[in-house]
Amino acid sequence: MATSWIAASSITLCMLIACGACAQTLQTTGVATALDASAAAGKAAPELYEELHVFDATGLHRSVSYRRDGKEFAAKTVDYSPAAVAPNFTQRDLRRGEMIAARRDAQGRVELGYREMSAAAERWQAVDASDRPLVIDAGFDNFVRQQWPALQKGDVIHFDFAVPSRAQVVHLVIVSAKAGLCGEPRLQGSHCFRVYAGNYVVRLFFPALHLLYDSDAQLQRFMGLSNINDEQGDGQQVRIDYHRALLQN
Predict the structure, then answer these.
(1) DSSP symbols for 11-74
(2) How sure is the predictor about 17, in pLDDT bands with cuts at 50, 70 and 90?
(3) Is 8 within a domain?
(4) CB atoms within 10 A of CB 242
(5) Please, which residues bridge with residue 115 across strands?
(6) DSSP class of residue 239?
(7) CA gap 3, 59 in Å, rounded
């Protein structure tokens, strides 16, 4: 089974999107389409799935429902109490029973969990810290916000990203990129970023991701290998366009 090089860890992103009007409900929807040659040529790409992001009363991102044809096939819950950029989370694929997760042990160390399918046993492994910031799953969006001034200056930002399916962290780099690499801009002042492996050998085998943010550091688009595998359990290259709406309570 081929899995994402960030191993379904939502740089695709159960991105946290801050809510400035907590008397209202913020609903964010991401529509994933195939990122292939036909899409690059401007032809219509098939819709693969939809993400529905749910927020609590304080505006924190708490869960994601992955759906196809209106039916949920995967779900994720997120707990930011340990750290804004390194939350605990659990994601389950209901089709095959695959699970990826992160939690803290009794000593406060990060443990990464993985189960390939329903019949398999869960594996948990503590990961060692390095001198780089550790980013887990949807905490990546908070990390981008923290680093926003440095990214705007063109700084090269290094960090470790948790990969539960491999029970390890991967050294990643985020830098500003040419706007065209993120597709057509949706708003004036959009910013394109490239995320790639810090290790040269790893970089040879896994392509970079491209992220489009607006001027308020809100994610607009993700382009790269999805955190959700296809029905055969293989990785899939996607483009996800995110749309936010405030709903009256």
Answers:
(1) TTS------S-TTEEEEEEEEEEE-SHHHHTTPPPPEEEEEEEEE-TTS-EEEEEEEETTEEEE
(2) very low
(3) no
(4) 20
(5) 99
(6) E
(7) 31
Name the residue range of residue 243's domain: 24-248
Residue 208, CA distances (Å) to 11, 121, 175, 212 in order = 12, 31, 11, 13
Does any domain span residue 166? yes
Decide: residue 171, CB within 10 A, 0-12 exposed, 13-18 middle, 19+ buried. middle
Rounded-to-integer distance, Cα 198 and Cα 175, Å? 12
Q: Say how many domains are in the chain.
A: 1
User: Which residues neighbour 54 within 8 Å (Cβ) at sequence distance 6 or greater?
Assistant: 27, 61, 62, 63, 64, 65
DSSP assigned state of 121: P
pLDDT band for position 206 (cuts 50, 70, 90)? confident
| Token pair in block for residue 173 | 């780099």
Task: Confirm whether 201 is domain-assigned.
Answer: yes
pLDDT beyond 60 at 61: yes
Contact 220, 212 (CB under 8 A): yes
Q: How many other C-beta atoms are found inside a 10 Å radius of the C-beta of residue 86?
A: 23
In the chain, where do the E strands start and end? 24-34, 47-55, 61-68, 71-79, 88-93, 99-104, 110-115, 123-126, 134-135, 157-163, 168-176, 191-197, 209-213, 219-225, 237-248
Percent of the chain predicted with pLDDT > 70: 83
Is there a contact between 195 and 212 (Cβ–Cβ < 8 Å)? no
Residue 152 host element (H or E): helix 148-152
Distance CA 220, CA 31 (A): 11
In a domain, 82, yes or no: yes
Q: Shortest CA distance to 55 belongs to which of 80, 91, 35, 38?
A: 80
